[in-house]
Amino acid sequence: MPAHKVTLEFNDRIVRQFLLATLVWGIVGMLVGVLVASQLSFWQLNFRSELLTFGRLRPLHTNAVIFAFVGNMMFAGIYYSTQRLVKARLASDFLSSLHFWGWQAIIVAAAITLPLGLTRGKEYAELIWPINLAVAFIWVVFAVNFFWTLARRREPSLYVALWFYIATIITVAMLYIVNHLSLPTSLVHSYPIFGGVQDALVQWWYGHNAVAFFLTTPILGIMYYFIPKAAERPVYSYRLSVIHFWSLVFVYIWAGPHHLLNTSLPDWLQTLGMTFSLMLWAPSWGGMLNGLLTLRGAWHKLRTDPVLKFMAAAVTFYGMATFEGPLLSIKSVNALAHYTDWIIGHVHAGALGWNGFMAAGMIYWLLPRLWNKPLHSTSLANLHFWLGTVGILLYVAAMWTSGITQGLMLNATTENGTVLAYPNFLDTLNSIRPMMLMRVIGGGLYLAGFVLMAWNVWQTVRGAQPVNGTIEVFEDEDVPAHGAAEPRLGLLATFANPPVLFSVLGCGFACAWMFGGHGLSVAGLVGTLLCVIIAYAHFESRGRAWAGWYDRLLVNTAPFTILTFVAVAAGGLIQIIPTVIVHRAANVEDRRQIPYTPLELAGRDIYVREGCYTCHSQMIRTLVPDVLRYGEYSRLGESIYDHPYQWGSKRNGPDLARVGGKYPNVWHVRHMENPRSVSVGSNMPNYPSLLTRNTDVAALPSKLSVQRTLGVPYPNWTPEQLAGRIDEQAKKVAADLRNAGAFVAPEKEIIALIAYLQQLGKSEIVAKPLETRAAQ
């Protein structure tokens, strides 16, 4: 039957919905960000409500910006560009609508539960298990809709942007599922199945790559679509985009351990994380250059076109952030920067500069096309750009200055490195207060720019008629839409070809080089060099065969997706599996001999609920200043029973790994009532509710049962035995407080929290016999 022309109407309604949600949640997330930044300078802004303390609002801010703001922006960009790149309407209007409303419901649920203290206590992974299940379900809905649309495509080959979308969908699913594996103790509480070092490694495998595959790869796909559209020029280099994609998705996944440098994480993992982080410079800057050079010939438009201004600045900030990230992963630099505001500045350079500006550029470009009306005010859009740029620069400069100052002061020693130059942690806080205020001003300017944008958008869409894009296509009823005439690439042809085989051999030799003994390491180095040389020679002589195979790969979605999954899964498997197998409690030296008592476990859950990990670490690094300030460095086995781990990533207050016994019980009561009564100048919120609320003892049997399932050696106490142990320890703490002049009932939460804090660093540990160590 001859082909006939039909007019295809795209589903742009879903794009408009996600675009407007991006603006709403972006402003909400940034507003909360300005508030929590202000709380670090003015403790009074924690107010008198436990719902509004820094420890509870900071996770709300991070989740709102990542999953609500960037998430909605990402879905808008993917749905708009995918339909046009494949010349097909989204496969299902129902799934599209379910995706949108399901995602908004998840955001609302997070906005309710996090201030209530319902949290898993892991950064960027705080949402409780029922919401996690909802996230997984909606992500599957998104994936089905996306891949179903690809299956209906009228364009045979997958464009560059679609590669990054595919990598995002499969990798985020893998990361999210593994890091959120938990055993529930109730409808609102669970414990992660990993503990201690295992939990730390899995968390930052997820946390770092959530940045990579939620905040980077989908935005790169959006960059590869929208910058050429806005500049009206083709992508600078197709070959560079191929190298950029495959090297980025393979290398990025290995870099998570650089968040745990100089800690008790095994040294081989630290070295691995640092090495691959440094390797990230190449693919990241390859992508940046590809984006910027796409603008060649369109530089004259930058003077007047706010879309190009935002996008050019966004790609520039991407380059800056991906230069700074590998720099911070160098152990000596990390020793200065980790736990300080420098890391906060680095994260926000990416979030505000890369994600925020790309979102703004995309929205300004889409508005006239989705509502068939010119942008209300180009001048306001340009003003937004300059407000945002000045805001970012003030913010990042303040955090660089603050972080380096803080790091230098905390690490400074005198008398040949044996005495701390600034023994009082509060000295560093007082020295950086001007920078903290500048941070608030910079964040406020950036927020003002987005408020201005919201006004511009409102004035543009008010009274306008929403329109859906259309395209004329030719359909042949005898030929499937995606083109059955293209050769299928089977499983054997997918893997048994020079590009894949050389890549696998090279990675195998590289692993032998990095992880093997002396002889194996030398052989691995030689093998890696030979593999690279032979692969290059083969490519030079048979380059057309390589290109032909890749062209066939791009018309077969399933093989391309499988190869992408193999590339991203390899790093996680090599890092996590050995750690989970080897670093079990029975195999770890210097492990804690006894777990927390039931009362201490209840106190620990209160600690997690209040978000104390957002300001306090429980990891004394193997650095002289850390040891001088806090005590003996942390051992691997000390946190082996911690579900979740609490090593922390930022110190707004001192480390607590060995705080047990450092202060009397009454000090902790005064500290929670009013921190400034015992620590003059402290930024910490007041927690008077801990003295009035009762400890949830009824939840402990279920929690202890789950802990036993996870391998924590709790006896199977009867209810009477459990109640007796809790009562005995609580009354002992309460009696000590009464003798010191503080009258607190034994059943109050402060008693459980004190029991937990006083235990930190004091647990008995057991070392393996020398014979056992020698045998291993």
What does this structure look like?
A hairpin with a 5-residue loop joins strand 2 (182-184) and strand 3 (190-192). Helix 10 runs antiparallel to helix 11 (306-328). This protein has 776 residues and is mainly α. The strands form four sheets. It has a two-stranded antiparallel sheet. The protein has a two-stranded antiparallel sheet with strand order 2-3. 63% of the residues lie in helices and 3% in strands. The model is unreliable at 765-776 (pLDDT under 50).
Give the SSE layout:
Elements: E1 4-9, H1 13-39, H2 54-86, H3 93-113, H4 129-151, H5 160-179, E2 182-184, E3 190-192, H6 196-213, H7 217-231, H8 238-252, H9 267-279, H10 281-293, H11 306-328, H12 331-337, H13 341-371, H14 378-411, E4 413-414, E5 419-420, H15 425-431, H16 433-461, E6 470-475, H17 491-495, H18 498-515, H19 518-553, H20 557-582, E7 591-592, H21 598-609, H22 624-630, H23 665-673, H24 700-709, H25 719-739, H26 749-759, E8 765-766, H27 770-775
Antiparallel strand pairs: 1-6, 2-3, 4-5, 7-8
Helix pairs in contact: 1-2, 1-3, 1-16, 2-3, 2-7, 2-13, 3-4, 4-5, 5-6, 5-7, 5-8, 5-20, 6-20, 7-11, 7-13, 8-10, 8-20, 10-11, 11-13, 11-14, 13-14, 13-16, 14-15, 14-16, 18-19, 21-26, 25-26
